[in-house]
């Protein structure tokens, strides 16, 4: 088990202040951060394409960390984690399993976004006993319709962002309209709130390998998601250009008893645009 600190140590509930830690397992050193009160089942966050520990919106993490032990981590070969990025979603799920069990946990709740949602699905399919509750946001099922457009959309929006000297996430995650543009800027600024111990940016080769993994996943035969019996919360915007919004509905149809939340006039980053509405929904879902 990781160091649980002394009993009178103050509980950190701000992601900006979460200590940076590492744990080695299976030949890889995983970088992670943890916050919130220790004890009970932790909520492990599975991050998106090209993301490091610094890509989580504190307005999503902090409300959950008020009452729950939260763990974020860098996948193998990303940020401060060592090794090579795997070229399949399933291998990423194997790494996640290695990391989680190295910390000593045999039961977790999962919060996932985008590529992280694909990794989370692969993890639940392979290790159903590990996961108690599942949050899948901005993601889709293996073999989902039009999922293989992710790479093209990503490169196009990166180009658009470069031409305007903006962060690609402003294009990829948000609508370019009166509601989306200010939400995008606010989100990008929130990601800068942490000033110490910032993570290393993803390397180009690592990013390209992740895209390759998504392409493989999008063209593979679907998993049988009817086997997922865990309470599942699915969320997205109604205009996701990266992982088409219809795929959230597809997941909802495949996972029996799942809940679906679709936010209006928003894209891939809807949960960040609507964090004031979504964070309480996620907190309530985990607390049930």
UniProtKB/TrEMBL annotation:
Keywords: Hydrolase
Signal sequence extent: none
InterPro entries (UniProt xref): AB_hydrolase, AB_hydrolase_1, AB_hydrolase_fold
Molecular function GO terms recorded: hydrolase activity
Keyword Phosphoprotein appears in the UniProt entry: no
Location of the AB hydrolase-1 domain: 43-272
Pfam families: Abhydrolase_1
Protein name: Alpha/beta fold hydrolase
Originating species: Streptomyces vulcanius
